[in-house]
Amino acid sequence: MGHPKFPSKHYDTPSHPWQKVRIEEESGLIHQYGLKNKREIWRANTKVREMRRQARKLTANSGDEQAQKEKILLLAKLNRLGMLEQNSGLEDVLTMTSESVLDRRLQTQVYLQGLSSTVKQARQLIVHGHISIDGAVARIPGILVTKLQEKNITYSPTSALNSDLHPVRPGIQEKTDDEMEEPIEEKVDEKEAENAKTEDRAESKQVEETKVEKK
C-alpha cells in the first residue's frame, strides 16, 4: 500500500509515446469531447481495460459460484452507468471502448442535454458551479453519470443561467445571433441607397455644369 500523501496514478500511459495512429485518434477524441488533455483519455482507457480484464477472468471461472455473483454485479454496474444494455453479457464488456466511458462523463451529458452551446462551454459551466445533479452542485467535468442522475442534470439553483433570458443560454444565444444579422443587412441596404443618391447628385451637378459651359 502506498503512502496516502502520494496517491498512485489513476491511468496507465501508452507503451510507446510516438505512434501516429494513436496520436491522431486521441486528438480527435479531445476535440469531440472537449477534453483538457490526453490524461483524461488515458483514464478512460484504463477503466475500460480493467473492466475487460475482470470480464475475461469471470469468463474463465464461469463455473464458480463467486464468479457468477461478481458477473451479476459487474453487468448491473455497467447497466446503471448506461454503458451496457439491460440484457448484455460479458462478451459485450469485451467490445467496450474508451468512448463508452467518455459518453457518460458529466461534461458530455451537459452538452447532449442542450444545457450548453458547445462541449467546451459545458466544461466551463461545470467548473464555475452552474451545473447541479439532484440539486447538488457538481464541479468535476469527468465524473461518470448514472442513468438516474442523467435525468436530474440541471442548472444549479443559485446560477444566473436559470433565467430564460440569460445570453449564455443556447436558445437565447442563437436568437441573439439572428437578431444581430438583420440590422447588418439593413445597414448595407441603407448604405447602398445613400451611395446611389450621391452618384445621382454628382451626375446632375455634372450635367448642370456642362449646360453652363455651353451657354
From TrEMBL:
Keyword RNA-binding carried by entry: yes
Region named Disordered: 157-215
InterPro entries the record matches: Ribosomal_uS4, Ribosomal_uS4_arc, Ribosomal_uS4_euk/arc, Ribosomal_uS4_N, S4_RNA-bd, S4_RNA-bd_sf
GO molecular function, one term: structural constituent of ribosome
Location of the Small ribosomal subunit protein uS4 N-terminal domain: 5-103
Protein name as it appears in the record: Small ribosomal subunit protein uS4
One example of a Gene Ontology biological process annotation: ribosomal small subunit biogenesis
Keywords, comma-separated and alphabetical: Ribonucleoprotein, Ribosomal protein, RNA-binding, rRNA-binding
GO CC terms of this entry: small ribosomal subunit
Xref: CDD domains: S4
Stated family: Belongs to the universal ribosomal protein uS4 family.
Summary of subunit composition and partner proteins: Part of the 30S ribosomal subunit. Contacts protein S5. The interaction surface between S4 and S5 is involved in control of translational fidelity.
Record field: compositional bias (Basic and acidic residues): 185-215
Function: With S5 and S12 plays an important role in translational accuracy.
RNA-binding S4 domain location: 104-166
Domain of life: Archaea
Annotated gene: RP-S4
